Amino acid sequence: MNENSNKEEKVSLKEAISIGIGGMVGGGIFAVLGLATDLAKGGTPISFLIAGAIALITAYSYAKLSVSFPDKGGTVKFINKGFGITVFSGGINNLLWISYIIMLSLYASAFGSYAPNLFAITNSQTLDAHIYGSVIIIIATLINYYSIAVVGKIESIAVIIKLVILLAFVAIGIYGLSSSTHLEQLSISNWESPLNLVVAGMMIFVAYEGFELIANAAPDIENPKKNIPKAYYGSVIFVIFLYIIISIITVGSLDFDEIATAKDYVLAEAAKPMLGTIGFTIITVAALISTFSAINASLYGGSRVSFELSQDDELPHQLTYQLWNQPIGLLITMVATLVLVNTLQLESISTAGSVGFLLIFACVNYVGFKLHKEIKSNKYITLIGCLSCSIALLTLIIKQFTTNRTNVLIAVGIVLFCFLIEFIYKRNEKNKAAN
């Protein structure tokens, strides 16, 4: 009986791939597609390819580390394994928690942008996008407090629904491109400069970050040596192709001016030329389901990160306390998300999220390089991953600093805040020990 029970608890390869795909195809593509197109124009598919290539190289480091150090702490454990329990590792891990909060803000902003369209279709009175975003955060938090099992069920159903709708969109969109009058927008003459293509890719890098959730499931994946790498590579490669095709359909179906006007809900707008109001409605519903499920899962993930950090003595032990049978970090995550979603613009949120994850992934790749003998990895691939993330991060910061300094200051300020909090905490703990 025990053996059967253990087998049932194991995560299959199919389920592990679903975790990766579900983590990436959450609210990201709905939130940042318009932003990417605004920056890269006809070269938007190339920007998604650039971002995807960096995600795939980083997935190599994650795969090797997950096989060697399977732990529900995932990224937190990898950083601590490579750097020890230090102010630096604590700062990076704090940044992971904050990055979850930033992603929640991104998803809530996307929900808030799509929701008014649904009510407009039904001729109902619409509210401010911030209200929709705030309400959905509160509802998802209540669901997390009510039952984690319900969160899991919502995620399982949502992954199927959003993939079916997006794949249908792709199939119909490819057919519709044959009669589109906007295909010339994809020509090289309509691409932005190579630098802008890279910057656009880094701005929307947050749409790929979800593959790291596979690391948290690593201890439960069956036949881990074979299935963990397959889960990472399979999910990332699938999503790269999905994003590229979606961006081709979008740029090939709508005029650039139409894309700019509907930037916050451009995927729904792209369905109009093919299916009219019905297509617009279906994609809007898919966006609402996707962003809601992503918020649900990210709230749980964020609260778990804060719990892990507290257990590892990188944040106060009070964060291990329970409030209504859930870590206190869940409530803190909700409040912080409400603050960000009501104070920052979508572009600022996306920039901060990309800066955070590029820095985190650069560090994970470095850990893969540093421990290459122990984890049996190719040190050159992990080094390339570290350098790619670092160069992409610097490119994004420098370019954004010349065009939108506020976004960079917010992103850098968040990073510094994470390290400052860790420094103050470690110093206080040291002073307590000395006394």
TrEMBL record:
GO cellular component, one term: plasma membrane
Membrane-crossing segments per the record: 16-36, 42-63, 83-109, 129-147, 159-177, 197-219, 231-254, 274-302, 323-343, 349-368, 380-402, 408-425
Locations listed in the record: Cell membrane
This protein's record includes keyword Membrane: yes
Keywords of this entry: Cell membrane, Membrane, Transmembrane, Transmembrane helix
Membrane topology: Multi-pass membrane protein
Leader sequence residues: none
Primary location group: membrane
Gene Ontology terms for molecular function: transmembrane transporter activity
Cross-referenced PANTHER family: AMINO ACID TRANSPORTER-RELATED, INNER MEMBRANE TRANSPORT PROTEIN YBAT
Protein name: Amino acid transporter
Organism lineage string: Bacteria, Pseudomonadati, Bacteroidota, Cytophagia, Cytophagales
